[in-house]
C-alpha cells in the first residue's frame, strides 16, 4: 500500500533524477509483486489499491511522458557535446521504466474495475497502444545477423525492448476491448474510426511480427525469447495470436461496435482477408472463431448499412497534448538540464544506484519470477541445492558440487 500511495507523475525534466529513479523502483517492485500475485491467483489486493488510490491515470501519464522523452529529448541529448555516453544508461533505464509500467498495466487490466478507474485517461492509453501496434505492423520480421560492433549491438537490444513493449501494449489493448460495454462512447469511436484498429489487427494476423523463418526453421517469440518451433507445433496458436483474434472478436462482433464501425469498401476488403486464416485447426483451438467465420460470410454477401450518425460530444485525449504544449520549444533546455543533473553521475552515485537496484532485484525474487526450475551446473538435471557461499550456482547433489568446486572456486571467491 505504501508503494501504491507513493506513485506520482513526473515532469519531463525530472526523468533520470534521483526522485524519478525512486519512482522506477516503486513501479518495479509493484510489477514483480503483481506477477507473483497473478501466478498465485491473488492479485485482487494490488488491483483494489490501484483503484482506491486512483493510480491508473498516474501510471498512464508516466507512460506517455516516457514515450515523449524518448522521441523529443533523447535525440537532442545525443547531439550535445557535454553528453558522454557513460550513457547508453539513459535510454535503457527509460526503456526499462516504460516496460515495467506497461507490464504492470498488462497484469491488472484484466479486471473491469481497473479499466473503469482509468476514466478519461483511457483515451491516452488507447492512443499509446495504437502507436505501438502501428510499430508492430511496420516491423520487418527478417532476422538480423549478429553484429559485434558495440553501438549496433546496443541498438539491437533497444529495438528488442521496444518490440517487447509493443507486444505488452497489444495485450493491454485486448483487455480494453473486453470491456467495450462499459467504455465511454469516445473510446469506442477512437478505436474503431479514428485509429481503425480492426484493420491494424488484420495486418498483424497477416504478417505476424512475432513469427519468422530463419535458415529453413520457423521461429516464434514467446515468453521473452525466440524459439525454434518443431514441425508438429507449427499450427499451434500462440498467446499473441490469441490476443489478436480475441481483440478482433470483441471489436467486430459486439453490437456496440457494429453500430459505430464503418463497413465501407476498404474496411470490408481488409476484414475479408481473415477468412483465409480461419482454418479448422485454428477454430479447434479457439472455438469462438466460428462466430467470426459466420460474420465474415455474412459480410461478404451483403452491403452493410452505413453506421448511424449520432450527434455526440467527443472527448479527446489530454495527457499527451498537455505534456507537449507545456514543454514545446524547451527540448534543448531540458536536455542540457538533464546532462548536468541526471546523466553525469559520479562514481559514488553510480555505486549507490547499483546497490539500490541490487536490493530491488534480489536473487530470491528473480528466481520466483523465473519460468524454469534451476538446473545442476554439472549434469543438467533439476537442482534443489546451491552454493551456500555465493548462492549463484545450483547442484543436484553434494557429489556434483564437489566435482565442480575447482572450476567454481575463483568465481565463488569473487562473488563472496
UniProtKB/TrEMBL annotation:
Entry GO MF terms: zinc ion binding
Keywords: Cell membrane, Cytoplasm, Cytoskeleton, Membrane, Metal-binding, Zinc, Zinc-finger
Residues covered by the MYND-type domain: 376-412
SUPFAM superfamilies per the UniProt record, alphabetical: HIT/MYND zinc finger-like
Organism superkingdom: Eukaryota
Gene Ontology CC entries for this record: apical plasma membrane; centriolar satellite; dynein axonemal particle
Major site of localization recorded for this protein: membrane
Keyword field contains Transcription regulation: no
Any Pfam family the entry gives: zf-MYND
GO biological process per UniProt: inner dynein arm assembly; motile cilium assembly; outer dynein arm assembly
Localization per Swiss-Prot or TrEMBL: Apical cell membrane; Cytoplasm, Cytoskeleton, Microtubule organizing center, Centrosome, Centriolar satellite; Dynein axonemal particle
Function as written in the Swiss-Prot or TrEMBL entry: Plays a role in axonemal structure organization and motility. Involved in axonemal pre-assembly of inner and outer dynein arms (IDA and ODA, respectively) for proper axoneme building for cilia motility. May act by indirectly regulating transcription of dynein proteins.
Family note: Belongs to the ZMYND10 family.
Protein name: Zinc finger MYND domain-containing protein 10
Gene: Zmynd10
